[in-house]
């Protein structure tokens, strides 16, 4: 009970915080996050008093300390969690993320901690993968600076250490998504392997959904986002991506319709509505495809799209009616 409530309060805190960069986020949203995390921490302390070896409780406390930027708390929680489970990889990885430069740490601190964990890899091979993470973080930082050459070099070092770690696969997919013309086979293979390794991880599901959208596998994208939201209904990033997905699914339905795949287009829109994507674009395209099972000429489609984008402007509907009559 304590753990479940803490998990909910932790996620609610991040939902209040939002997904914008810190400089673009009002102070009130940070305050709301910290208030919810304070409540979650109280629940976790109660849970750990009842069950000191509750590793998930320690992991959530680490995540809260990271959000608060509290290095002392993070180190204390790490020591307590390793007393409970010396070889647990997840708590070590979560602590490693608190050492990222953007959270006040440094690459050197990350490497030192990862190297210490790797010494125990004979007892738990998963700990060896942590040594790849400093380079994965360097890869992401280089991507943010638009230095793809540096990003690819950092990723190559990480992949050489842990090619089949789901974190490495996430970084690989992010790199594959960068060019205008993607390597579709490589992207599909990486996305499939990611899903096989981390099927119930919401972050992995979001990355998988991004790959599926780029590959125009819209139903698979909708399914992964739906799973991410089922696992964590308060996930602010998933909610934002799901809102954006409405337009992508509508576009996907249009492409299927243009290829004379009327039934597949309607099934895609039905699955979108089932998952909760009920924006005007979804409704408009359902109506158009049902009324016109075969693809209508382009002027009608263009006018119809304007009615979806600006449904309050009557002139769009009048022009559409006139074109249909003609």
Question: What does it look like?
Answer:
The protein has helices at residues 2-17, 27-50, 55-68, 71-84, 89-98, 107-118, 133-144, 148-161, 166-176, 184-197, 202-214, 218-231, 236-258, 262-275, 280-291, 298-309, 314-325. With 326 residues, it is mostly helical. The protein is globular and about 65 Å long. The model has no long low-confidence stretch (mean pLDDT 83).
Compact overview of the structure:
This protein is mostly helical. It has helices spanning 2-17, 27-50, 55-68, 71-84, 89-98, 107-118, 133-144, 148-161, 166-176, 184-197, 202-214, 218-231, 236-258, 262-275, 280-291, 298-309, 314-325.
Ends apart, CA distance between termini? 65 Å
Helix content: over 70%
Mean pLDDT over all positions: 83
Helix/strand class: mainly alpha
Instruction: Quickly count the helices.
Output: 17
Order of helices and strands: HHHHHHHHHHHHHHHHH
Computed CA radius of gyration, to the nearest angstrom: 23 Å
- E-strand count: 0
Largest sheet: none
Determine the strand fraction and express it as a percent band: under 5%
Low-confidence stretches: none
Shape: globular
């Amino acid at each position: 009970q304590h753990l479940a409530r803490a998990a909910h309060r932790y996620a609610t805190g991040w939902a209040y915080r939002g997904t914008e960069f810190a400089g673009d986020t009002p102070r009130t949203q940070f305050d709301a996050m910290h208030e919810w995390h304070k409540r979650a921490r109280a629940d976790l302390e109660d849970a750990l008093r009842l069950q000191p070896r509750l590793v998930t409780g320690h992991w959530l406390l680490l995540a809260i300390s990271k959000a608060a930027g509290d290095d002392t708390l993070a180190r204390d929680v790490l020591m307590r969690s390793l007393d409970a489970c010396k070889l647990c990889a997840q708590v070590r990885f979560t602590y490693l993320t608190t050492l990222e430069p953007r959270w006040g740490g440094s690459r050197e601190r990350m490497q030192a901690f990862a190297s210490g964990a790797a010494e125990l890899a004979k007892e738990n091979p998963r700990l060896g993968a942590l040594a790849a993470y400093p380079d994965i973080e360097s890869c992401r930082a280089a991507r943010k600076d638009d230095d793809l050459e540096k990003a690819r070099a950092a990723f190559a070092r990480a992949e050489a250490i842990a090619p089949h770690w789901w974190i490495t696969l996430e970084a690989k997919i992010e790199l594959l998504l960068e060019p205008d013309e993607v390597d579709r086979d490589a992207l599909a293979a990486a996305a499939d392997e990611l899903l096989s390794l981390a099927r119930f991880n919401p972050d992995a599901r979001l990355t998988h959904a991004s790959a599926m959208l780029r590959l125009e596998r819209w139903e698979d994208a909708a399914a992964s986002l739906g799973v991410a939201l089922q696992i964590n209904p308060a996930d602010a990033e998933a909610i934002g991506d799901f809102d954006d997905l409405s337009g992508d699914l509508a576009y996907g339905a249009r492409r299927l319709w243009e290829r004379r795949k009327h039934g597949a287009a309607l099934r895609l829109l039905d699955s979108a509505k089932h998952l909760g994507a009920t924006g005007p674009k979804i409704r408009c395209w359902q109506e158009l495809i049902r009324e016109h099972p075969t693809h209508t000429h382009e002027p009608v489609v263009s006018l119809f799209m304007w009615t979806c984008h600006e449904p309050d402007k009557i002139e769009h509907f009048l022009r559409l009616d006139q074109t249909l009559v003609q």
